[in-house]
Design goal:
The structure holds two protein chains of two kinds. By secondary structure, chain A is α/β, with parallel strands linked by helices. Chain A has twelve helices and 17 strands. Helix content of chain B is 21%, strand content 28%. The chains are: A alpha/beta, B alpha+beta. The complex binds flavin-adenine dinucleotide.
Chain lengths: 416, 990
């Protein structure tokens, strides 16, 4: 049933008895044309575009837990595309353009809210790095503008721009098209739309191994609910990608770290945009429900435990309280962690692999939510045509061997 | 207004201390010892707030930290205001100002109540289905409206005047919860005076549920006397720390438990200097969780009206606070414990009716006791609704027939109602400790299963509800035993997910999660739409996601879900419990890390001299570095021009103490250096220095610096200022994990040595009078040499090195002598007009010479060859970190960016650092970028602006004209060699 205000009102009269399931709960078939491992946002988007743009509808998404329960449902939902390198700018802006019409495309309100992402500069190196980004973005047609200290304050009045704090704000880079979205709705919207096109979403089913044919190509997967035959498998398992790929005998250039986030108790609107500060390690926005949504850092050590250290949270909150001293009396309501998969150059891998029929989409680390639609779109193309889309062609697995890195983190890094 | 509902005697309030609090501006008389909730109830005020979504009138439901409804804005004066306080845990004091929230224009008349009428549309997840047209309207129209309607109270608007503290503590035993189980555990655990025991409890005083039990006895004495005696015993033991008003809110690995202690919130005038709250990080040998249990509300239509409370809470208010929550009370229950409340309320003068879902035969002795006490009891009755809008006026009840069918409804008039659906153990901390929960169907609850850490649960948090058994359980958890005789506890209950209602009842709102306005129907809808995992239900309906984190609602939600799925609760599982147990202020986490203490500022031994001489400072990592020394009213540009000229014409003095310094010692020191740096070190003679490049495994430049060989087995290594900790960690990483066989020790000596750079043609003459034991002439002490000796009588390591291109020395002296030696050198240089210069001049001077700064010319993607430094890569060396990566195809391919100089057409134009470079400015977007500006300055010595840049195939583009972005367009620049001054290096060897 199509979602709209009208259908909502009509269903109110029937006491909401007639809404159908948003997705089925199918039994796995014996064979599919393609299988996606991992029903996070990226996996579900991949399935949706495989079905809607490439006509592959006899496909399944296999999820070991509940769909959207990985990092998709745990992240702070910051969306922006003002990345430095041409390759990244193209990929993330491809996603941003899809975000702009996503609610309508999926007939599901994902609440993409382009309220602006403001990154704060606190020192000479921040200024230099932001200007480098802004100039590169300008030439790439990606919006990103420099704000003076006073303009920062105008755009986000709660910020403390006093020159007397430990790391005063000296300016900022603003991407007005950036913003946030409702993470669960993204997973659910893609799931519902993919399901409507015939995609089987199989939850509570873990992929435990791979079957190969005589040539070594993929012939199927082993799961906790039995073997399933297929010639194409796309692995989209975020923090657990290394584990899954190891089952195919491939060692991935990934490290998995716990990354934490937290929310405050809900309050009336006080914080108008998204603010990020790399220098003092704080990210903050306010959800539509009223909670301040705050991102913390990763732990220093690799781990699969979805609970990070307390010191990481304390350091995040002291930074937030420096930026907005009024928030000191606010209270933390919930704190959680997710496992993020980090590549050596901090850019994702959307790629074919040495095994025919096996594709991998991972390495999004701490920042892949924003790419969800673009990533799914390009990865679907890669699987359907056995060759990458122009947008993801540079993001190969091979680049760590050839050295053709896309080092966004290094580009923003500071030494002296 | 009168305190009409205060009982003439009893309670734990202090009647000698009358106080007045304000509620929405009205005076509310109360006593010291009241909470905001008991003060309001004593004055007959139940209706205190509006719900989140439907803006329904809400009252006080509970008596503790699980309160979902009564959220108040609390103002303690002096900018001490914040929203969303649970009225049941706010301690009252004279002048405390309370306000209701989430309504407009007023509590009693709230426009938002329209949402309740539109409830048929505003069901779970409605917002995912609409507000999509036209697309632009989400951000501009719908979202602002939704945001304004959502949120609870108003965030604080003034900076917080309070201070917060933090403390680490170790204990053999940490007991969480000072109810009977926790007290018993602490008594046993602390018998051994060598065992440190911490007993914490979120309430203002220890005692837990016993604080409102005025009828039970333990070993023949009233419970209050038992608690008092036990606490006196514990207090007298030096090994015991009792922490009231302290919530254990987080349980981490290695028995690391975080506690939030609230120190001043209950005080009218906090003592100066006292922190408001303190974060305790306790590492405990054993943790005993005695966190009690929460009562479950009943799910029935309109179960949320002000005046409808948890049964045990009624009992608490009447006994602990001497407040009668109503005069005519109906208590709906499915279990025995509510009878205690009924009996106590009756004894306090209320008329009380109990409506029990259970059959008479299923009831125990509680029934007889209640009837005996004069309580009217209706067994085999359900409650199907309530009357009243801003205050309950009656419960609609009905008898069940033999088949469980609901009979004719009738209304029992009341001004207050109780509800009790049984008990849920508070397993939150156990679950945070990663222990696995087990479903106990006898208790109809999840209880702790196997522990993962050194932890034991005791008492009702593991379903042991009987008083005597609880005390025995607490003692046992601490490794002892204690058998007491105590009054029986009424514990049994019959689980009811939703109260039986007549079929075909018109759509109703029967709340499961009160704060988030989640109804039983919402859960049904979620299941119908395919949200069958409990985590999906939680997220789709938002049940359990309010500020109470579902303490009262989770079990009802689980039960309803299991019912919808026609399965059992264990099959549904439970959601993850996340910290914090109750909300904790940001201030508690941040603690003293604010202002100057946010990140400690590092200052050099010469800092005070720079301050006294008017330096402006810049932040470099944690360091405060002298940036420039303006004379009178010079601008930065003027100061830098003067400083840089002075260095090139006579002499300058510069504080380089922030340079990272590491001593590499040991038999294999040279081999270690060989492997860590790209260039060769084995043949470096003692007394000589060398500039080294360090790569990461990926082959990209990671750090650089000069290292000196002081003996065959000792290198004095310098790193960049910001890189010091990274480099040491990198070295240790390799030493410990890759080359454990090497005999090498690494010691950070950054803080041990002050470094004074003296640069310029007069440098030698300046220091000569201060040095006796080192020959300074060029032959004896050439460029890139190092000597040890004394300067101004102080031991020194003297380097002849230069980061300016001039004759230069870097004087390393023990940090404590730094300023004294600096002053001596400065004094000696006066005859040459020696000029102190800062980091900005240092940057300009090195750029004139084309010297790179790691982090400015490099960004983690730059190879030695890109910088024109391939000569520093030891081709003959067997291995070094990064060597293998240097032969990767894309690292040796053409088309890499290389370091070049740029000259702008306009001599005075200073390009932006970070500006992008194109060959053709007239392309269409996206443009092909071929490089970027890494450094850019006005050079007074050269008389024009200069810039360094990384440009694709830069070395092949000499004299090519390129275009560089400016804020408004492009500027022309010509590619030149990156060395702008003295390319032959004549000055260095002067
Ligand atoms: C705290 C936090 C904050 C973040 N903040 C942001 C932000 O502000 N902006 C941003 O852009 N990004 C952010 N991110 C990153 C972002 O969440 C992720 O990059 C992105 O959501 C990854 O999506 P995904 O679909 O690839 O992964 P996931 O959503 O994690 O999905 C992977 C799925 O694979 C499943 N799976 C794993 N192994 C198997 C198996 N063997 N068989 C079957 N299924 C399997 C998992 O259960 C999981 O559901 C944040 C991440 C975290 C943890």
């Amino acid at each position: 049933m199509r979602f709209s205000l009208l259908s909502l009102v009509r269903n109110a009269f029937s006491n909401h008895q007639n809404w159908g399931r948003q997705w089925r709960q199918p039994e796995p078939k014996k064979t599919y044309d393609a299988i996606i491992v991992g029903a996070g946002g990226h996996g579900l988007a991949t399935a949706f575009y495989l079905a809607s743009e490439h006509g592959l509808t006899n496909i399944a998404v296999i999820e070991k837990g509940w769909l959207g329960g990985g990092n998709t449902g745990r992240n702070t939902t910051i969306i922006r595309s003002n990345y430095l390198y041409d390759e990244s700018a193209a990929l993330y802006d491809h996603a941003l353009k899809l975000w702009e019409g996503l609610s309508q495309a999926l007939n599901y309100n994902v609440m993409y809210s382009a309220r602006g992402v403001l990154m704060l500069a606190h020192n000479h190196h921040d200024v230099m790095s932001f200007k480098r980004h802004i100039y590169a973005n300008r030439l790439n047609g990606v919006d990103n503008e420099w704000l003076s200290r006073e303009q920062v304050k105008d755009f986000c009045p709660p910020l403390n721009i006093s020159p007397d704090i430990r790391y005063p704000v000296v300016g900022g880079a603003l991407q007005r098209r950036g913003g946030v979205a409702r993470h669960d709705a993204v997973a659910w919207g893609y799931a519902r739309a993919a399901d409507a096109l015939g995609v089987d979403i199989i939850q509570n089913c873990e992929v435990t191994g791979f079957k190969r044919d005589a040539s070594g190509a993929i012939a199927g997967v082993e799961t906790t609910r039995g073997p399933i035959a297929t010639k194409k498998v796309g692995v989209v398992a975020a923090g657990h990608t290394s584990v899954v790929m190891a089952r195919a005998g491939l060692r991935m250039p990934l490290e998995s770290f716990p990354l934490q986030a937290l929310v405050s108790e809900p309050v009336k609107p006080v914080f108008p945009c998204v603010v990020m500060s790399n220098t003092i390690h704080a990210y903050i926005s306010q959800s539509d429900k009223g909670e301040l949504v705050i991102g913390a850092g990763t732990d220093q050590y690799v781990s699969y435990s979805q609970q990070g250290g307390l010191h990481v949270t304390t350091h995040t909150l002291d930074a937030i309280c420096e930026l907005v001293p009024e928030f000191r009396r606010m209270r933390m309501l919930r704190n959680w962690g997710g496992i993020v998969d980090v590549t050596p150059d901090r850019s994702p891998i959307l790629s074919k692999t040495p095994i025919a029929g096996l594709y991998v989409n991972c390495g999004w680390g701490t920042g892949g939510f924003k790419a969800t639609p673009g990533s799914g779109h390009a990865f679907a193309h890669t699987i359907a045509h056995d060759t990458p889309h122009a947008v993801n062609a540079p993001f190969t697995l091979d680049r760590f061997r050839t050295g053709r890195l896309i080092d966004e983190a290094a580009a923003a890094a500071v030494a002296h | 207004m009168t305190t009409a509902f205060r009982l003439p005697k009893g309670g734990r309030i202090d009647r000698t201390k009358p106080i007045v609090v304000r509620f929405n501006g009205r005076e509310v008389p109360a006593f010291q010892g009241d909470t905001a909730a008991s003060a309001l109830l004593a004055n007959g005020i139940h209706f205190v707030g509006r719900s989140f979504k439907y803006h329904r009138p809400r009252g006080i439901m509970s008596h503790g930290s699980e309160e979902p409804n009564a959220l108040l804005d609390v103002d303690r004066g002096g900018n001490r205001r914040e929203p969303n306080n649970r009225a049941t845990v706010v301690e009252a004091f004279d002048g405390l100002a309370l306000k209701s929230q989430n309504h407009w224009p007023s509590l009693t008349f709230d426009v938002g109540e329209i949402n309740d009428r539109l409830g048929a549309i505003f069901v779970a997840g409605f917002y995912y289905k609409t507000f999509m047209w036209p697309p632009k309207f989400w951000t501009s129209v719908y979202e602002p409206i939704i945001r304004r309607a959502a949120g609870l109270g108003q965030a604080p608007t003034a900076p917080d005047p309070d201070r917060y503290a933090q403390r680490h503590a170790h204990a053999e035993v940490l007991v969480v919860g000072a109810g009977p189980a926790g007290i018993a555990a602490a008594l046993v655990a602390s018998e051994d005076p060598n065992k440190r025991v911490i007993l914490c409890d979120e309430q203002a005083e220890p005692g837990g549920a016993l604080l409102h039990d005025v009828t039970s006895e333990i070993d023949g004495v009233p419970t209050s006397a038992w608690v008092k005696a036990a606490i006196e015993t514990l207090d007298a033991r030096e090994n015991v720390t009792i922490l009231p008003r302290t919530t254990a809110f987080g349980y981490f690995n290695h028995n690391h438990v975080a506690l939030a202690e609230r120190i001043t919130d209950h005080l009218r005038v906090p003592l100066t200097g006292l922190p408001r709250e303190r974060l305790w990080q306790v590492r405990a040998g054993r943790v005993i969780l005695a966190t009690g249990a929460h009562e479950r509300p009943l799910v029935f239509a309109d179960n949320d009206r002000p005046g409808i409370m948890l049964a045990e809470s009624l009992r608490c208010f009447v006994n602990r606070y001497a407040v009668l929550p109503g005069r005519q009370i109906v208590i709906a229950t499915t279990g025995a414990s509510a009878y205690r409340a009924a009996i106590d309320l009756k004894a306090a003068g209320a008329s009380v009716t109990v409506v029990d879902l259970r059959l008479e035969g299923d009831c125990g002795t509680e029934l007889v006791a209640a009837v005996h006490a004069g309580v009217e009891v209706l067994t085999n009755h359900t409650v199907i609704g309530s009357h009243g809008r801003q205050r309950v006026t009656g419960l609609i009840v009905a008898k069940l027939d033999g088949n469980g069918a609901v009979g004719a409804p009738r209304v029992l008039a009341c001004d207050c109602a109780g509800m009790s659906g049984g008990w849920t153990p508070a397993v939150h901390l156990f679950s945070q400790s990663r222990g696995k929960l087990r479903f106990d169907s006898g208790l109809d609850a999840f209880v702790p299963g196997a522990s993962v850490q050194a932890e034991t649960s005791a008492g009702s948090c593991r379903g042991v509800y009987d008083l005597a058994a609880t005390i025995a359980d607490g003692a046992k958890a601490a490794g002892g035993s204690r058998a007491v005789a105590a009054s029986p506890t009424y514990t049994s209950f019959q689980p009811a997910r939703i109260m039986p209602a007549p079929p075909g009842q018109k759509p109703v709102k029967a709340f499961v999660d009160f704060q988030n306005d989640v109804t039983a129907k919402d859960i049904k809808l979620a299941v119908a739409e395919g949200f069958t995992s409990i985590e999906h239900v939680k997220r789709y309906t938002t049940t359990g996601m309010a500020t109470d984190q579902g303490k009262t609602s989770n079990m009802n939600a689980l039960g309803l879900l299991a019912g919808q799925l026609a399965t059992e609760i264990p099959a549904v599982g439970t959601t993850t419990f996340r910290l914090p147990y109750t909300p904790v202020t940001f201030g508690t986490f941040a603690g003293p890390n604010r202002g100057d203490l946010f990140d400690p500022a590092r200052v050099t031994p010469i800092h005070d001299w720079a301050v006294a001489n008017g330096a402006k400072f810049e932040d470099v990592g944690l360091w405060k570095r002298a940036w420039y020394f303006p004379a009178r009213d010079e601008t930065m540009h003027q100061a830098v021009a003067r400083e840089t000229k002075a260095v090139r014409t006579s002499a300058g003095i510069f504080d380089a103490s922030t340079l990272g310094k590491i001593e590499v010692t040991g038999a294999d020191a040279a081999e270690f250096m060989n492997r860590i740096y790209t260039n060769a070190w084995t043949k470096l003679e003692v007394g000589r220095c060398r500039y080294g490049l360090m790569l990461k495994e990926d082959g990209y430049v990671f750090d650089d610096g000069v290292a000196a060989r002081l003996s065959p087995t000792l290198f004095h290594v310098t790193t960049t200022t910001g890189g010091a900790p990274r480099v040491l960690a990198h070295m240790e990483d390799f030493l410990q994990t890759e080359w454990p066989d090497l005999k090498v020790f690494l010691t950070s000596i950054t803080e041990q040595w002050a470094v004074i750079a003296v640069q310029g043609r007069r440098a030698r003459e300046m220091i000569a009078p201060l040095i006796e034991d080192i020959a300074l002439d060029d032959a004896a002490f050439p460029h890139m040499a190092v000597r040890t000796g004394h300067i101004a009588g102080v031991p020194c390591r003297l380097f002849r090195v230069s980061f300016t291109g001039e004759l230069g020395f870097e004087i390393n002296v023990p940090a404590d002598y730094g300023q004294a030696v600096w002053e001596a050198v400065y004094e000696s240089g006066r005859r040459f007009d020696v000029t102190p210069y800062g980091t900005e001049a240092m940057h300009v001077l090195r750029a004139e010479k084309g010297y790179i700064i790691v982090g400015q010319e490099t960004d983690g993607t730059v190879t030695p060859d890109d910088l024109g430094l391939s000569g520093l890569v030891g081709k003959a060396k067997r291995d070094f970190v990064g060597k293998r990566s240097l032969v990767r195809p894309d690292v040796v391919a053409t088309g890499r960016k290389q370091l070049v100089g740029l000259r702008t057409g306009d001599l005075s134009l200073i390009l932006d650092e970070g500006a992008q470079i194109v060959a053709d400015p007239n392309q269409t977007v996206p443009m092909k970028m071929i490089g970027h500006v890494t450094s850019s300055y006005m050079s007074a010595n050269i008389g024009r602006s200069i810039a360094l840049a990384l440009v694709v195939d830069g070395r092949r583009r000499m004299n090519e004209r390129l275009h560089v972005t400016t804020p408004n367009g492009f500027a022309q620049a010509t590619v030149v060699e990156p060395v702008f001054l003295d390319p032959e290096g004549v000055r260095l060897h002067a």
